[in-house]
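pipeline/complex-builder :: batch 7 item 3
reading input block
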Amino acid sequence: MRNNRPLARTITRRAFIQAGTTGAAAIAAFTNDSLGRVAAAAGRVADRAPADLARDETYWREIQQAFTLDRTIINLNNGGCCPSPRVVHEAFKRYLDISNQAPVYHMWQILEPNIETVRRRLAAAFGCDPEELAITRNASEALQIAQLGIDLKAGDEIVTTNQDYGRMLDTWDQRARRDGVTIKKISFPVPPPSMGDLADRLLGAITPRTKLLHFCHITNLTGQIFPVRQICDAARAKGIKTIVDGAHAFAHFPYTLADLGCDYYGTSLHKWLLAPIGTGFLYVRRENIESLWPLTATAASKAKDIRKFEEIGTHPAANHNAIAEALSFHEGIGTERKAARLRYLRNRWVDKLRSNPRINIHTSLDPAQSCAIGTVQITTVPTAKAVPQLWDKWRIIATPIVHAEYEGIRVTPNVYTTLEEIDTFIEAMERIAEGS
Ligand SMILES: Cc1ncc(COP(=O)(O)O)c(C=O)c1O
């Protein structure tokens, strides 16, 4: 659709294989068995409950070995962007190689139309109609399409939180400067007393001038999960639209659109789905598509087409097509199992460190309110000093979180993280806390 050249419609798969001999050779050269091994491992444990499988190191070793990592460092920042499993990275490189033969043909005519397969599969996983899902380069782009594309006038009010993502808050700030809209940011404690408290705070800030609520499905600062459906239903009843920032949610823990009920949803796929860097999607409820302006202008005839948000000019097809391989890898594990393992890894370090009088955990441990992400503070050592110590002495990567109301170290393991790596982190934190 993006490169809707007539030739694309006439090319068959057979013609592709005949024409793209280099591509076919590349496919053979890059073939490996990691996806098969993951699928076989999944088959062997098909009847096991997620919480039980979360402790099965034999199963998770198969997953760990599906990655090509540098095991001389311990990467506990999987909140920024993540390594792809080997099979995904190889698909990505293969599509780049195929593209480079004659990009105007191999990339535009052969690879690009297959974005529709990716759209269909992502929509099935998210639980929306494919005609409501645009593939973007990241969550920032997805969310900014919504933030900058909705008609608003001076005096209109947007309610958000002061723990939303910095770039998204900057985007609202720019709209305030440019269009005179008002941004109201609510505060909340970490962890909050309850999920209901979060809903009350956001909904309680609504005034007759409020046109939009913008909030995270799960925050990047402490991994707090919001009661999205409750908030969106209440907003909808008042005629207020909802933008939900799902950058950290998709493929992290189980949910579908039916659990959200929002108007707009943006996520990254290079975080928890483990897709190539430069991938995300935007969901727009069908009734909102026509009135939402794309960031890159398109013809009026495309106004009702979700693909208008993908008209970004020339771009690689490799990134978005390799999302399909990431979905296969993800589905080979299953979201329930992945979430159970991520909570198991998170609880392993939290359970050990929470009894330390020098350590505060800012993340709720209620499974409904959190998953892989945990934020921890060593009260005796400033975060700005503790994080470099983790790296300098232990080669552990973790993220400093410094918010106006609290600070801490954000820890995000992934499916490839080993128990030995978690235990090393526990030891490092205990030593740093006692000043040794
Ligand atoms: C809550 C939240 N929203 C949005 C983003 C932006 O994501 P991206 O960098 O993929 O555009 C991030 C990135 O970390 C995030 O944590």
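note: The radius of gyration is 22 Å.
queue -> next item
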